[in-house]
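Technical appendix A lists one of the benchmark inputs used to test multi-chain prediction within the project. The record comprises four sequence entries:
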Amino acid sequence: MDEVAAAAGVSRATVSRVINNAPTVEAKIRERVQRAISATGYVVNSAARTLVTRRTGSVALVISEPEQREYDSSFLNRIFTDPFFGRITAGAQSALRPHDVHLVILPTDSSDHHQVVRYLRQGHVDGVLLISSHDEDPLPEQVHALGIPAVMSARPAAAIPASFVHTDQRLGARLAAEHLIRRGCTRLATVSGPLDMPAGQERLDGFRSFLQRRGLADVPCVEGDFTRAGGEDAARRLLAEHPGVDGLFVANDLMAEGAMLVLHDLGRRVPDDVAVIGFDDSSAALACRPPLTTVRQPVEEMAAEMAELLLAHIADPDRLPRSVSFQPTLVIRGSA
Amino acid sequence: MDEVAAAAGVSRATVSRVINNAPTVEAKIRERVQRAISATGYVVNSAARTLVTRRTGSVALVISEPEQREYDSSFLNRIFTDPFFGRITAGAQSALRPHDVHLVILPTDSSDHHQVVRYLRQGHVDGVLLISSHDEDPLPEQVHALGIPAVMSARPAAAIPASFVHTDQRLGARLAAEHLIRRGCTRLATVSGPLDMPAGQERLDGFRSFLQRRGLADVPCVEGDFTRAGGEDAARRLLAEHPGVDGLFVANDLMAEGAMLVLHDLGRRVPDDVAVIGFDDSSAALACRPPLTTVRQPVEEMAAEMAELLLAHIADPDRLPRSVSFQPTLVIRGSA
DNA sequence: CTGAAAGCGCTTACAG
DNA sequence: CTGAAAGCGCTTACAG
């Protein structure tokens, strides 16, 4: 920087001003400095800048899962190949990129929370996007206690004031139930997500309570784990106990893909013998044969909105928390 | 830090020493400082530390693709939901995590290279893991010119000295060809990857040249793009022109999944009518019915090795470049 | 083994 | 509009 200042015949302060586009620099000097910058190939040192501005230009995307049996590459593998998390990452990146803000992705389980908290406290990032899917997860409160700008992926279980985005899961499940009824299915069943996850619980509630109002109580349910293999297992068990099922709601697309595979193995035709509806509208939906009818969540847009909210909180720390809600929609394809 | 020093009755230098586990601190003092740290809740400021140590504790994972029609969320979406890149990320993370090194993922196309280069020059990271899949990609050379520690995902096209990892793609393709022949297939064909990518070209070469030696010349080939939808298209075209095909090698699993879908639509039984072999052994292989026989690349292990190599280069900038090679293996499942 | 001091490379009131 | 100077919060020779 001294070199640039010398080459341009100005002070370091002025060099700094042109780098940061301060309006108070005379055009001629600005140009002279710019030439000196190109000539010397100078670039700012981001650590030095961060030290004084208190801004890093990075945010963390924390993906918090319940404790894993083994925190290893199989956990990381599941996270990084999950189409849902992939869409979140893509949505967040696309919103952040224009602002030149970078994303550090931190998958974590509860055995690992302290590492994440330490990382955040060390000031590596300006804020955090927190994807927490379990009721009992203490991380949202811990992050909130840190006082660092944060946006959550759903209403936090704890009563903390924080911005979050939201989809009406119950409404989504109801859309699925309505469609199955409309199709004339009479023996409905569902593969739910994990019932200790709000997303799992709410989709089941929404599905069941709509059917109950239509006089259909006690719809069979087997709990799955939101993975494809888990969906296969759950569907196999469900179909073994309830072979007559003709309409199946599966709480996410990955499990639905597994369920379709099982139906195929069992020689059941979809949708003629069994109509199937998934949830998410992820890429897995198009990998099914027939293509999967599913409840769409605009995941990319939600993640982008989380990023925008976070940027706003970083720019103005006194900004009041707000939540923004997205509507699920039914995407009708071949499976129901 | 002053606060901690005062509370422990020592200098800041000593506080720094205990934080960094310098061996030359008396046990009693060390303990006193540690208590003061817990009492005050002190954590280091990473920007200040980086400014003096020249270490950030982060590395970049740069995923360089050819120029996109639109650099937007659909590009990011493809990258972040691609099982191959997901495995790379997981493998790199799992190797880096024990060293407390963080990963910032930078998908980029050629319109965007200057941003990546600027980011790297600003010193945000200690090194870069570069996934570059195109022959003409100038990024490996640019990164090398920066003088920042880097490890490549394959032998760089340019003659630059750099560490890289490698799988023998030709051998992998040959494994597929051998297996198809052994099965008794006589009318072979292939869906290749993009032929401007070494991985696409080499798999095709390996497949064809083995067959040629067996007297099978001019095996039909349609070029695909490594996506599932691209695999569907390519398979459809191939089968329209060559309906008699009884053995199909598809250059990655995602395209193979698409090809299997097309075969299903066409009423062809797999493997009885057509045997199908993929490449990668990604999660897509298990989403096929029947499950996909495929050439396994140990992608996670390769990415972990890249990370280890990078860490070694960061620790010792004078270390000589080396390459480490992995063997592909055939994983036999139901499709062939 | 410990401390005083210099220095990492920036930005930003403050004065002019 | 520009510059001299202080200061961001650490680490690390250097001296003792």
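The domain at 169-296 of chain A is CATH 3.40.50.2300 (Rossmann fold). Chain A has 13 helices and twelve strands. Comparable benchmark entries are summarised in Table A2.
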